Amino acid sequence: MSTVPQSTSRVDSPPHHGINDGSGAACGSHSYAIVDEQGKAVSRDESLTEILISKGVKEANFISAIVSLGEGTQNSSGDDQLHLDIDCDNAVFRAIRESGVFAIAASEETPKEVDVSSNTATEDGPLYSLGFDPLDGSSIIDANFSVGSIFGIWPGKGLLGRTGREQVASVVSLYGPRTTLIIALPSKSRDGNGQSDITFEVTLVKDRSHWEVSRPEVILKPSKKVFAPGNLRATNDNAKYDALVKHWISDRYTLRYSGGMVPDVYHMFAKSGGVFSNVSSEKARAKLRLLYEVAAMGLLVECAGGLTTHEFEDKSVLDFTVDDLDRRMGVCFGSKDEVQKYKDFMFSK
After folding, report:
1. Nearest CA among 173, 207, 171 for reference residue 186
2. pLDDT of residue 191
3. Among candidates 93, 14, 20, which has minimal Cα distance to 60?
4. Does position 218 have pLDDT exceeding 70, yes or no?
5. Could you tell me which of 83, 92, 100, 86 has the C-alpha nearest to residue 18?
6. What contacts 2, CB < 8 A, 6 or more positions away?
7. What is the pLDDT of residue 25?
8. What is the C-alpha to C-alpha distance for residues 324 and 162, in angstroms, rounded to an integer?
């Protein structure tokens, strides 16, 4: 399999690439790592990667916003909304408007299609639309847990009526002891014939001056006895979920659960396997949004060789249509054998 990358070549970054000292002022002197096995920087693999880590995502803005945690309001779905979430939401919208490559964006905090095109768009017009969760895990940040952001990129203009399968790329950022991005590029987004889906990781290094590829390829092994069971309250009135959780415990699976979707799923990528579930019941409804969380994370998992499924329907989360910008669902992500075990318990008659 051809991978991104085996060697890197550093080039000057475009203006306002978003690596700065946290003051909000653009820095024009830093550089970033471009991925290319031949030392060139002209392929579609790299152009999408550039959008993700150099134009579309301004990490330092997030890091700066994270320290401004304060009291909050409520978003349109009624969830508690910290000022921190709003700061990060504004930072992303500001960055993507400046990038000139996006037409439409919607977020968990701003659940509507917003025109973000600008005068700096390409001659052919904006190329992509973006659905994102600007800060996943804001409810656990006061315990100093790792948090993250989730981004899904679709071609063209518009998000309603699309499926996760149509994404050209997705990325999850993790803010912890290190700042990292894990990026999924499906085969259709890669150069050359016959190149496979790929998931790889980059890390912000050298005093946040540029990105380096830290893992050229991230692969989920078929099985691994590590579980992250979300929405455990549902086990009280969902007998099948209760039986599955008890099976994981009795079969001596290792529990790795923080309450944040990004760190819990990211742990699977770090350890090359495992299973993450978030299942609903009559009294404990699903909270994960298809557009802002599920589709992007699902692409990452499947490009890494894993499986995804809807909580109650034997169907990949990438095949569900965004018919409502706030559509929610329960899910299971992870290693192939572990997701199959989920199906055996949850889909049995």
Report:
1. 171
2. 72
3. 20
4. yes
5. 92
6. 37, 190, 192, 195, 196
7. 36
8. 10
Alpha-helical regions (H) of the chain: 44-50, 59-66, 83-99, 239-250, 261-271, 295-303, 336-346
Residue with tokens 């071609």: 155
CA distance 14 to 2: 27
Beta-strand relationship, 72-74 and 128-136: unpaired
pLDDT at residue 206 tops 90 = no
Selection from 168, 184, 90, 89 nearest residue 129 by Cα? 168
Quick one: 257 exposed, middle or buried, by C-beta within 10 A (0-12, 13-18, 19+)?
middle
Is residue 319 over pLDDT 90? yes
CB of 153 within 8 A of CB of 169?
Answer: yes
Name 256's Cβ contacts closer than 8 Å, sequence gap at least 6: 226, 227, 228, 264, 267, 274
pLDDT in tens, 12-58: 333 222 222 233 333 333 233 333 333 333 344 556 666 665 554 55
Residues facing 210 on adjacent strands: 205
- Sheet arrangement for strand 179-185: 114-115, 102-107, 128-136, 147-155, 169-175, 179-185, 198-205, 210-215
What stretch of H or E contains 260?
none
d(C-alpha 201, C-alpha 217), whole Å: 7
Q: What pTM was computed for the model? A: 0.82
Cβ–Cβ under 8 Å, residues 35 and 6? no
